[in-house]
Amino acid sequence: MKLRIAIQKSGRLNEDSVKLLKEIGIDFSSPNGKLKAEASNFPLELLFLRDDDIPQYVADGVADIGIVGENVLIEKDKDVKIQNKLGFGKCRLSIAVEKTMQYKNASDLKGKRIATSYPVILRKFLKKKKVKAEVHEISGSVEIAPGIGLSEAICDLVSSGSTLLMNGLKEVEVILKSEAVLISGKGLGKEKKELLTKLLFRIEANKKAKKNKYILLNAPNNKLDKIVSILPGMKSPTVLPLAQKGWSSVHSVLNEDDFWEIIESLKANGAQGILVVPIEKMIV
Ligand code: PRT
Ligand code: ZN
Q1: Which of 2, 33, 154, 208 is the most exposed, having the fewest neighbouring CB atoms within 10 Å of its CB?
Q2: Top-level class of domain 3-87+179-188
Q3: Which residue stretches of the chain are H helix?
């Protein structure tokens, strides 16, 4: 019994999807133009597809699970389940208009033509805002539509915003925030569910490791209590005596969110020789 995963064949999600699978210990050789590959050390078969096709393939059970952007998933509206947000492929689906256009709110889109590759999501948004506008579905290079007179506005993915800037457009509404997600079909059997649980466990450990750092430092014993109270640790920090009398080595795990604040406070309280090292995997 093998679990089948669909990932993007080429494009923005391909590299990070492959990297994630490798980081959770799955070995396979790159497809070289082929549609399929097999992992050598886990019962997993990989299908390399266009991102637009992945929700359908997973809903139909051709693939058991898949990695796809939430934007595509919502647009395709298929019966699949989101298992995990993966933290890459982050972007937003936004409406942009010509820089010179006066824009206060969605009602300014009334009667305008909006070019997009996301007609389903855009129509829902317009309906919710009770705005009647013309949706022009085009499959690519949406950002040039206003410049060539095809539309007055666009609805497209944005990440840095430089594409909009280069085309004389400004972002006026964010309809959706998106990142890559792991999806599964609804009818997985027991064995496949077990394999999926194993994968999800590894993905969690990998995500946690990325969010955390291992920290080692030296502290004079008379400051230990204060320093230990600053450090969170997985249970509590490890404290070991140093060869030099009156000093200890303290080990702990720090979350990246409050990383710098804690480091500063440790220094201020007498910590020395602070080392921060990456964590490979973290199982709590
Ligand atoms: O061939 P296939 O159909 O599989 O790929 P595709 O060409 O349809 O998609 P691809 O590879 O471009 O994107 C795959 C997924 O990456 C998308 O569905 C999103 O979930 C995610 N993603 C993240 C993005 C972006 N960021 C992004 N910036 N997808 C596209 N863009 C484009 C956007 O359309 C615009 O043209 O990048 C441009 C804007 O970028 P900035 O940085 O200039 O704002
Ligand atoms: Zn696509």
Answers
A1: 33
A2: alpha beta
A3: 14-23, 54-60, 70-76, 119-128, 162-166, 190-211, 224-230, 259-268
